[in-house]
Amino acid sequence: LRSLRMVGRIGILCAFKVLPTWRKWSGNSYEIIELLRKAEYYLWGKTNEKDVIGAADRISALVQGYDYGTNFAPLMAGMAAVQAAYTVTDGNDYEEVAENDEELASDEWDAAFLASLSCNGGAADLSEINPESNREFWKWYLTDCIPYVYENEKHAGYHAGNKIRIPTPANCNVTLSDKI
After folding, report:
1. Can you give the three-state secondary structure of 19-65, one letter per residue?
2. What is the pTM of this model?
């Protein structure tokens, strides 16, 4: 359970990292925030799998139902939240062994990879990935996100009463975290 909580929280924080991209495109973020809140509640046993999967299915249909033209960054941002929710419920972080990245179907990409694509402007092809943007995201992931989740899991005192506080590492959307 502890490992699942950590993997789930990493996915949730990756989705928060790119939430501003979704909000800028869609004009709001309450659906995504609600989904991430349900995912976090599930990690603490405060809701059931059916509620989280139902919300993830609904948000997945919403996110995939828009016409993004050639701007896939908001699609990747929205799907990062969906994938984070699916990951917390099934414990699968989709770490498949593949010969190359093109062998994995896009519905098997984890929240971190989807968030990295969003940070890359929604790169639809490996050749479109900006090395600097990619490096910036993965540096945040390795130096801020993972250590932050690990340290907070060691001192898991942010669950009190009916409110769950999701701690946010540097360069993540702190303001939205307080609303969950």
Report:
1. HHHHHHHHCCCHHHHHHHHHHHHHHCCCCCHHHHHHHHHHHHHHHHC
2. 0.79
